[in-house]
């Protein structure tokens, strides 16, 4: 199994607050890993560190993606090399239409990789196919990014971006939060559509319900800045029944 992502003894902070305290994680190509844990454990911090958010500082440890240390890479470089982050709270970008945003993102990544821009007609057909896949109104492409969208529409729009960009490593931070059952199914279908032997997904979630639709290969419990327990899908069901207290007491 090719290791797409290898994290060793990762320590990271925001400001003076150390949040990740010796985290280890190995993700193979073709795998889906679910990260669960109590509030304040460091789940969102891990996502943002992987994406290259500037406010989060790695103080020690290594992050190797496709065999290369990416600690010094910018968020833009990581995105161009195939790392995608879906945000827990997607932001609105007034004045920038979804279509403009998607085209700029795709062509910026192609340029970083030394590839030509995608032809306009090809790009339009590609995006429309993905919009249909996410059961979205095509008129949303002309609206500002996430502007006036409901919570569920914002999350579906995030997955649309993922489908269009076709990343290698998808880091989805509580993509299921705020979704009703219909939206959860559509978002889950989008995530499952990206599953392939060349890609991997990290799902940060509090709840079993997402994992009923997106079957993980591994489930990890993150607590106090490090992974304290790992297992298969059955671990998520055990956490649903017992909570996290039994692990903290162990």
UniProtKB/TrEMBL annotation:
SUPFAM superfamilies in UniProt: P-loop containing nucleoside triphosphate hydrolases (SSF52540)
Domain ABC transporter residues, every copy: 5-249
Alphabetized UniProt keyword annotations: ATP-binding, Nucleotide-binding
An example molecular function term from Gene Ontology annotations: ATP hydrolysis activity
SMART domains: AAA
CDD domains on file: ABC_FeS_Assembly
Gene3D superfamilies: P-loop containing nucleotide triphosphate hydrolases
InterPro entries: AAA+_ATPase, ABC_transporter-like_ATP-bd, ABC_transporter-like_CS, FeS-cluster_ATPase_SufC, P-loop_NTPase
Keyword Chloroplast in record: no
Top-rank taxon: Bacteria
UniProt family annotation: Belongs to the ABC transporter superfamily. Ycf16 family.
Protein name as it appears in the record: Fe-S cluster assembly ATPase SufC
Protein source organism: Solimonas terrae
